[in-house]
């Protein structure tokens, strides 16, 4: 029991730290990005991406990458979304058009971990 | 080529020559302690073993004997099959035969599928296990194929495409071999599919029958759908059914309707959120019982329909038990589908109770408001009071041991349009959970007839592991944080645990071989909770699939 509550306390502490760093569901304002684009990206993300990368891009980053930590490399993002990667990330090039992928990128930028 | 030939010759030389295992042995699976021949450790899906070598007194001396890497970092939800000292286990990417005593691989056959496939897999890149019959291993693939392999060599013997991923269909289910027929179900009710159960000839793969879970307008139940809504009505069948050989009846749970937004599909929407009693030879429906008519909340009823013979009001009764995702624990008379008991086993606010005369839920304003498009807080959440992870029924204690969920959800419908191969939900996915402050899950010992909890073992991050119980008075389960655990069946006292290195979403099994009782479980997480919860505490739990085998160290 002691061990269990110790583990629980450790997790709780970790969770508190995590929530202090990022506030899920509250995108940070990002200069030069159209909020309408971000909102559209959020909707597209929920439909096509969230069942692997987590609701609002919140996940543990172990099973699928934590996109909030994705490098600031738009070309890499677009290529990966279109073509897929490593037999894990499926290709979306025949489902999502360039505009939709652009809104996903804007949404990702709004969710990035500082 | 050389390697394949070598593997084949090793298999022939293996000390336990693979002899064809028969229909009769499958029927006796629940009491065959030297093998694990059925999904659910018996056609009754009780996941109960009469073995006693591992018991509540010596469980603390359990030690790992070996670990076998799947070389895979997806969710490992497969139940191993054990026959004559060989474990047969699956991942989404391979089927494997492993020597039970040593952990040595006998053969491994890869499964390949198109890279687009994960787009239409809602809840984890997984497979739930194989079936065995007369020297063949049967399994399904993520891209909706059913295949048969030679149990001795792993060589593919036949392959049948059941459905098309472009239309949103996938397969994760472990097949059921009943009355000489291979039965399989389908996944995809979140993608505008129409569910079904198939029957296949084990020898040749010939397609014998298909029973759709959503009737056409001119079939019985067709009037429970308006217009063309039946065509995208969902009703998937992704958990293996149970089978009563005496009644020659298969009991298969049916999933949620599509889309989630129930305003799109007025009516009861048969046979979604139901159990079907089927003739395995023909697929003909003998009876049905619907748990949740016109359900908005993803209360899939696919999870295991456990069979037992118990006393109901003093009378020995052939029952079917289901800890339904909708939060009620049901007991039905499995000879006719009559409702015997339905009581909440977790917090429920979408219905007050189940009408024992009609079998229908008495719904609250939460359900009404949800259907009208208002945002509601609903208990259980869309993950249910218990998700897919199978419970165990112990006939000695008369209790069901289940990993249950203790949180609610936010639910708000959205307009929805169908596009082949994409989500067809009609629900806001950006704000899903009402976590509350306490533990998010409990391993509970539940009285089937009252739904009451005898004991519970809480967990901050809920358990999504299958449960195993034994005549030794031990209950086995696992944590998403990696601990494989043993509990006292009577009071829930933790007897032992072992860190397996990744989260456990597997299905523990036990058998005895040459005087030693073994327990096996897969480790490796990535299923529905880790994908949808946004629980960042799991960032500290590595992915990585493997198979563990344990026994009690001689003192």
Please describe what this structure looks like.
The complex is a heterodimer of chains A (114) and B (555). Chain A has 114 residues and is an all-alpha fold. Chain A is 54% helix and 0% strand. Chain A has helices at residues 2-21, 35-48, 50-53, 74-83, 98-111. The N and C termini of chain A lie far apart (38 Å). In chain B, a hairpin with a 3-residue loop joins β4 (86-90) and β5 (94-99). Chain B is globular and about 65 Å long. Chain B has a single domain (20-448, 459-552), classed as 8 Propeller (Methanol Dehydrogenase, Chain A). With 555 residues, chain B is mainly β. At the A-B interface, α1, α2 and α3 of A face α4 of B.
Task: Name the CATH architecture of chain A.
Answer: Orthogonal Bundle
Helix-and-strand structural type of chain A: mainly alpha
Oligomer: heterodimer
CATH class of chain B: Mainly Beta
- pLDDT average of chain A, as an integer? 80
What is the class of chain A in the CATH system?
Mainly Alpha
CATH level 3 topology of chain A = Cytochrome Bc1 Complex, Chain D, domain 2
Structural class call of chain B reads mainly beta
Q: Could you list the spans of chain A in which at least 5 consecutive residues all have pLDDT below 50?
A: 1-30
Using only C-alpha atoms, the radius of gyration of chain B works out to 22 Å
- Number of spatially distinct domains of chain A: 1
How far apart the termini of chain A lie comes to 38 Å
Mean pLDDT of chain B: 95
Compute the gyration radius of chain A: what is it?
A: 16 Å
Order of helices and strands of chain A: HHHHH
Please tally the helical runs of chain B, counting DSSP H or I stretches of 4 or more residues. 4
The H-level CATH homologous superfamily of chain B, spelled out, is Quinoprotein alcohol dehydrogenase-like superfamily
Bin the helical content of chain B.
under 10%
N-C termini distance of chain B: 46 Å
Task: Choose one word for the global shape of chain A.
Answer: globular
């Amino acid at each position: 029991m002691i061990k269990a509550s110790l583990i629980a306390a450790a997790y709780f502490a970790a969770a508190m730290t995590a929530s202090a760093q990022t506030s899920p569901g509250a995108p940070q304002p990002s200069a030069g990005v159209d909020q309408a684009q971000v909102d559209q990206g959020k909707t597209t993300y929920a439909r096509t991406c969230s069942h692997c990368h987590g609701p609002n891009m919140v996940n543990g980053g172990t099973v699928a990458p934590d996109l909030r930590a994705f490098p600031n490399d738009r070309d890499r993002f677009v290529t990966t979304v279109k073509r897929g990667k490593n037999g894990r990330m499926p290709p979306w090039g025949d489902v999502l058009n360039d505009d939709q992928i652009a809104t996903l990128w804007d949404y990702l930028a709004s969710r990035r971990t500082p | 080529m050389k390697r394949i030939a070598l593997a084949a010759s090793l298999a022939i030389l293996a000390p336990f020559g693979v002899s064809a295992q028969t229909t009769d042995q499958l029927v006796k699976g629940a009491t065959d302690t030297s093998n694990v021949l059925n999904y659910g450790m018996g056609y009754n899906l009780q996941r109960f073993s009469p073995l006693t070598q591992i018991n509540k007194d010596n469980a603390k001396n359990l030690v790992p004997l070996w670990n076998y890497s799947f070389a895979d970092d997806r969710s490992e939800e497969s139940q191993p099959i054990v026959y004559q000292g060989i474990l047969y286990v699956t991942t989404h990417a391979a089927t494997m035969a492993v020597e039970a005593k040593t952990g040595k691989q006998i053969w491994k056959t890869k499964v390949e599928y198109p890279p687009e496939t994960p787009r239409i897999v809602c809840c984890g890149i997984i497979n739930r296990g194989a079936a065995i019959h007369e020297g063949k291993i049967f399994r399904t693939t993520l891209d909706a194929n059913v295949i048969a392999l030679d149990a001795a060599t792993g060589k593919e013997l036949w392959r049948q495409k059941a459905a098309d991923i472009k239309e949103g269909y996938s397969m994760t289910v472990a097949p059921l071999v009943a009355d000489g027929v291979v039965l399989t179900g389908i996944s995809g009710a979140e993608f505008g599919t129409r569910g079904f159960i198939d029957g296949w000839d084990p020898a040749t793969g010939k397609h014998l029958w298909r029973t759709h879970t959503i009737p056409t307008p001119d079939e019985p139940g067709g009037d429970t759908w308006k217009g063309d809504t039946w065509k995208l009505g969902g009703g998937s069948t992704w958990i293996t059914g149970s089978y009563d050989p005496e009644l020659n009846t298969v009991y298969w749970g049916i999933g949620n309707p599509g889309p989630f937004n129930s305003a799109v599909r007025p009516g009861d929407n048969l046979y979604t959120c139901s159990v079907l009693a089927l003739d395995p030879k023909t697929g003909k429906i003998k009876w049905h019982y619907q748990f949740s008519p016109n359900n908005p909340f993803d209360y899939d009823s696919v999870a295991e329909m456990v069979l037992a013979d118990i006393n109901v009001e003093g009378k020995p009764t052939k029952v079917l038990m289901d800890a339904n995702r909708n939060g009620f624990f049901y007991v039905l008379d499995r000879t006719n589908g009559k409702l015997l008991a339905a009581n909440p086993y977790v917090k429920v606010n979408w219905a007050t109770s189940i009408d024992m005369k009609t079998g229908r839920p008495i719904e609250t304003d939460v359900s009404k408001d949800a259907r009208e498009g208002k945002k509601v807080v609903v208990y259980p959440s869309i993950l249910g009071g218990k998700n897919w992870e199978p419970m165990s029924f112990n006939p000695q204690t008369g209790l069901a041991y289940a990993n249950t969920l203790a949180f609610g959800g936010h639910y708000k419908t959205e307009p929805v349009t169908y596009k082949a191969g994409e989500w067809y939900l009609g629900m806001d996915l950006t704000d899903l959970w009402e976590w509350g402050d306490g533990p998010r899950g409990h391993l509970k010992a539940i009285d089937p007839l009252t739904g009451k909890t005898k004991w519970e073992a809480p967990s901050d991050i809920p358990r999504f592991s299958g449960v195993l119980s034994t005549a030794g008075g031990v209950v086995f389960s696992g944590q998403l944080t990696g601990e494989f655990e043993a509990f006292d069946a009577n009071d829930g006292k933790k007897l032992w645990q072992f860190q397996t290195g990744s989260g456990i979403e597997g299905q523990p099994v036990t058998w005895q071989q040459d005087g030693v009782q073994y327990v096996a479980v897969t480790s490796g997480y990535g299923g529905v909770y880790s994908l949808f919860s946004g629980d960042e505490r799991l960032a500290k739990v590595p992915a990585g699939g493997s198979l563990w085998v344990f026994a009690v160290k001689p003192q």
